[in-house]
């Protein structure tokens, strides 16, 4: 699949995320954003906010914030990934203790991963239209021993990851089953993102 966008006829494509995983996933389908502009929002869930609306809210807010500060004709992609056990939203692991708590909770259990994608045109691109998708997948871990959890923590690829693990990292050795979108679990569901881009006049994806 190749990037069919023409710089003479189409707006810029802006990714509202500094995530190298999302950039790599876009590159997998032949898309390189013209600009990476992280939104840097407060991602604290609202009281009693459920996982699906939380992921969608953040994706939309990220795309809208960056679109509002982009003066050129542009389409902005915002995304957010949420790991949930039932109605409980697991945090992004910023320290080892948080990652350990997440892995202990996920051990031997099935959980859900929701990734929301939003596209938002800047004010200068009147032909664009806002659109969203939410993709829900499920992931089942084998039961982890204390030793295995410590080994995963030592590997370090949990840092900054929702739920304290990365599908593309060492945790893959303990994931028994995945249902849904593997790329969505990593951070950007490629089929749905491509569909959103095909629906725009910019034609970034054939």
Automatic annotation (TrEMBL):
UniProt main location, coarse: cytoplasm
Protein's UniProt name: dTTP/UTP pyrophosphatase
InterPro entries, per database record: ITPase-like_fam (IPR029001), Maf-like (IPR003697)
CDD domains: Maf (cd00555)
Function: Nucleoside triphosphate pyrophosphatase that hydrolyzes dTTP and UTP. May have a dual role in cell division arrest and in preventing the incorporation of modified nucleotides into cellular nucleic acids.
One GO cellular component term: cytoplasm
Cofactor: a divalent metal cation
Organism in which the protein naturally occurs: Ameyamaea chiangmaiensis
Enzyme Commission number(s) from the entry: 3.6.1.9
Gene name of the encoded protein: maf
Keywords per UniProt: Cytoplasm, Hydrolase, Nucleotide metabolism
GO molecular function (one): nucleoside triphosphate diphosphatase activity
Gene3D superfamilies, sorted: 3.90.950.10
């Amino acid at each position: 699949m190749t990037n069919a966008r023409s710089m003479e006829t189409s707006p810029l494509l802006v990714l509202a995320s500094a995530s190298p995983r999302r950039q790599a996933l876009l590159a997998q389908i032949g898309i390189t954003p013209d600009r990476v502009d992280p939104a840097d929002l407060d991602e604290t869930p609202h009281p009693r906010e459920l996982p699906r609306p939380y992921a969608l809210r953040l994706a939309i807010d990220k795309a809208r914030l960056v679109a509002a500060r982009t003066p050129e004709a542009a389409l902005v992609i915002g995304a957010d990934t949420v790991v949930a056990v039932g109605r409980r939203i697991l945090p992004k692991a910023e320290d080892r203790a948080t990652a350990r708590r997440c892995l202990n909770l996920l051990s031997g259990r099935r959980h859900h991963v929701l990734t929301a994608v939003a596209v938002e045109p800047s004010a200068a691109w009147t032909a664009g239209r806002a659109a969203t998708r939410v993709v829900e997948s499920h992931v089942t871990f084998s039961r982890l021993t204390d030793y295995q959890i410590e080994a995963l923590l030592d590997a370090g690829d949990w840092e900054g990851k929702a739920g304290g693990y990365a599908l593309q990292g060492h945790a893959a050795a303990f994931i028994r089953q995945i249902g849904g979108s593997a790329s969505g679990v990593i951070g950007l569901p490629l089929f749905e993102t491509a569909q959103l881009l095909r629906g725009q006049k910019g034609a970034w994806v054939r």
